[in-house]
Amino acid sequence: MTPAGTSRRLRSNRYYGGYNQQALVRNGHMQALGFPDGLLRSGKPLIGIANSQSDLNPCNAHLGEVAEAVKRGVWEAGGVPVVFPTISLGEANMLPTTMLFRNLMSMDVEETLRANPVDGVVLLGGCDKTTPAQLMGAASVDLPTLVLTGGPMLTSRFRGRTLGTGTDARKLADEVRAGRMAPEEFFAAEGCYARSAGHCMVMGTASTMASVAEALGMQLPGTSSIPAPDAARKQAAHRAGRRIVEMVHEDLRMSRILTRGAFENAVKVNAALSGSTNAVLHLLAIAGRAGVPLELDDFDLWMRDVPWLANLRPAGEHYMEDFHHAGGLPALMRRLIDHLETKALTVTGATVAENVAAAECFDDDVIRPLDRPLGIGAGTAVLRGNLAPDGAVIKQAAASPGLMRHRGRALVFDTIQECEAKIHDPDLDVDENTVLVVRNCGPKGYPGMPEVANLPIPRKLLERGVDDMVRISDARMSGTAYGTVILHVAPEAAAGGPLALVRTGDVIALDVPARTLVLEVDDAELQRRRQGLPERPRRFERGWAKLYEDHVLQADQGADLDFLVGASGAEPHGGDP
Ligand code: FES
Ligand code: MG
């Protein structure tokens, strides 16, 4: 019998039990960590703590301390904690984009879990891609798994105003370029930009994915929004450590939590948060690993009548810290409860409904009541048409109402570099009705789908007060950005999508309420243009970039690698020699 009274043999017992040579080698080596004789033979669950801390990723810089708190909880509950590092993906530093490496990180997490004798795992992520990468990798192994994101950084303050990471960087850069801000003031703002470790504190991709992890049932209720430096985060980490040991004894695996209902909850919560469009890609990829059917159209259908309740930047006004003190995700989910799949099981062992039944809201401006939403069905809409046969998305809450139905002449850039080189040219033939198009920025095309979809507004229009235009691309957009931006166009230009056929001067018609995106050029002409398209040369001859270019799926399938979709379980490849 194990300490919890179950007779189930733990995965780790296979490695550490018995009297053979391997058992001696394994136990002996682990004793080098200071584990006393017999500890790992005693049947206590071995709990992995996947730590994506890195000095190259300041958002995750504090995860070592968080891991220490998780360890205390694991010890207290009768488990044995082991921390292991994984790849980390620092959004602020990596080129061309962290998204190029999300799938690589997921492989690191997956193979580390499968090859090592852990019985359960706590995933410590935070910065944008780290949370989805961990969820993807862990889902392909399917151990008892609990997510603990690192929490948002403190709200930044600068000369009497607040600053939102990402969101205000663009504004400050625009101000200094337009001559409205002195360079000294710009540098002073830089010094106030990130007040602590933790991920971006607006409802960008990191806050979105942390919330999504909680909405999926993978993170303890109320923990995703605790500010990174808050003592409550270490307390939550301690509780997470205790809980993962129980989950191992209960054999509460990820596959019991990641049901279609869990994904429905995540999509709806993301709509109520007005969260990042990146969540669409990540949820599709996670569902692909978990074997849960999920399609782009599910997002549009599920979010249609969901009230937008969280008044958070970039679409709203407040910050993650405010959201946390208003009651966080449990308060929001309680208000949303009639829209949710309430029976979905979570890491607590209880259902979503049980988890949030007693949740209170302490600030109705930050988390709006149902009778005072910021919008209805204002989440990420899915568009289709001859320009995006496999779909494209738009974050409605970040778009201008006056541009949601729009016809305009296309101005096409073949690359983002071409766009950047020409966009501010005073002689550029562009006005506020022009539809800006940039292509070759998709998963294969760039590679990695950089967050460039919110193309800059031409300076000559900015100076006339134009602050938004319709922009279309196969790229992504940062969760901290805004504008009438149509992104994730699939198939991408580099995969032969119709986006490759658009020419400057063509008319494009957008109708978000009707969910259409149409290139007003007849099929025969498009066919002629397709025949004239040059063959796209291969760009990468070796290494990760080659593997990625050869195997990445399109945006509507989550941009995972084709051979990573699905799961292979926790059995080591080839077994135990
Ligand atoms: Fe890491 Fe924004 S840069 S979350
Ligand atoms: Mg981001």
UniProtKB/TrEMBL annotation:
Domain Dihydroxy-acid/6-phosphogluconate dehydratase C-terminal: 365-559
GO MF assignments: 2 iron, 2 sulfur cluster binding; hydro-lyase activity; metal ion binding
Gene3D superfamilies: IlvD/EDD C-terminal domain-like
UniProt name for this protein: Dihydroxy-acid dehydratase
Swiss-Prot/TrEMBL GO biological process terms: branched-chain amino acid biosynthetic process
Keyword match Nuclease: no
NCBIfam families from the UniProt entry: PRK06131.1 (NF004784), PRK13017.1 (NF009560)
Keywords: 2Fe-2S, Amino-acid biosynthesis, Branched-chain amino acid biosynthesis, Iron, Iron-sulfur, Lyase, Metal-binding
Keyword Iron-sulfur in annotation: yes
SUPFAM superfamilies listed in its UniProt record: IlvD/EDD N-terminal domain-like, LeuD/IlvD-like
Dihydroxy-acid/6-phosphogluconate dehydratase N-terminal domain: residues covered: 44-355
Family named by the database record: Belongs to the IlvD/Edd family.
